[in-house]
Amino acid sequence: MLASLHSANTSQAPVAHFSSEHSCLSIDHLSLAYAGKEALRDLTLSVPRHRVTAFIGPSGCGKSTLLRAINRLHDLNETVTHSGKITLEGQDIHDPQTNVTELRRRVGMVFQTPNPFPMSIYENVAFGLRLQQRLPKRKRDDIIEWALTSAALWDEVKDRLHRSAWQLSGGQQQRLVIARTLAVQPDVLLLDEPASALDPISTLKIEELIRNLKSELTLVLVTHNMQQAARVSDYTAFLHQGELVEYGPTDQVFTNPRLQHTENYITGRIT
To answer: Are the beta carbons of 210 and 192 closer than 8 angstroms?
Structure first.
């Protein structure tokens, strides 16, 4: 898959563009504000299918806001206003006909702090399956084993599936949350600082998991950790003050950024 990089004039950010054939998500001139305070400004980018795309930038630059916009987590906040368009596989997510519950199944999200439900490991993974459809127990068991295996957790929990999820370590809980999301077979997985609260060994397991999962689905990662973005992502978007500054292949963004602003952030000269 080839991405073309465009910067038609000095006022435009150098941004990788993907054909509709290769992109899963498209964001077109998205602006978003909280109670009139702008958080995202005229942001346009496309996210390639079956790749890991990282959003980097200083705190408050709009990374997490953009992630939440992709599966409409702002809907219940009446102070939020937005313009522009987000499409998932060509479908406008704000179309009146869009089923928001189905959208959030297709676009799963994992947050910074692990949030397992107060129930068993098994029931955590089964939760979304039970909401969606009535399945024979054998079929449900197979899906749960597949999800836990995909989240690199099955071997660690297969003998204690009916114990409380809260007995797991922080890293195991985060992988359990990922398994719970995978069980409903999303198209996209959004990860908001998924390893920032974890120890180094657990962080490496999450990073390995992210790399392995891109054969199954599209991943979007928000991280403050430059080394992590460089290790796991295929493409990197640098945001600053709600605007897209630069977006391209991760190797190019980190080793040969097209803008001095990007280089200053990556090297720590600005934070």
So the answer is: no
pLDDT at 190 over 60: yes
For 59, 248, 258, the CA distances from 270, given in Å and listed in that order, are: 12, 20, 16
- Spatial distance between the Cα atoms of 140 and 125, rounded to a whole number of angstroms: 10
The side-by-side arrangement of strands in the sheet containing 15-17 is 4-6, 15-17, 243-249, 235-240, 52-56, 218-222, 188-192, 107-110
Domains of the chain (ranges; CATH) run 30-266 (3.40.50.300)
Q: Are 16 and 248 in contact (CB under 8 A)?
A: yes
Beta-strand ranges (E) seen in the chain are 4-6, 15-17, 23-34, 37-48, 52-56, 80-88, 91-92, 107-110, 188-192, 218-222, 235-240, 243-249
Is residue 199's pLDDT more than 60?
yes
User: Do the Cβ atoms of 107 and 70 come closer than 8 Å?
Assistant: yes
Give the strands of the sheet with 91-92, arranged side by side.
37-48, 23-34, 80-88, 91-92
Quick one: pLDDT at residue 131?
80
Q: Residue 208: which region, alpha, beta or left (left: phi > 0; alpha: psi -120 to 50)? A: alpha
The candidate with the shortest Cα–Cα distance to 54, out of 232, 251, 243, 242, is 232
The tens digit of pLDDT for each residue in 120-141 reads: 999 999 998 888 778 899 999 9
Cut 0.90: pTM above it: yes
Average pLDDT, the chain: 93
From the list 180, 188, 128, 187, the residue with the least C-alpha distance to 153 is 180
Mean pLDDT, residues 194-206 taken together: 93
Residue 65, number of CB atoms within 10 A of its CB: 23
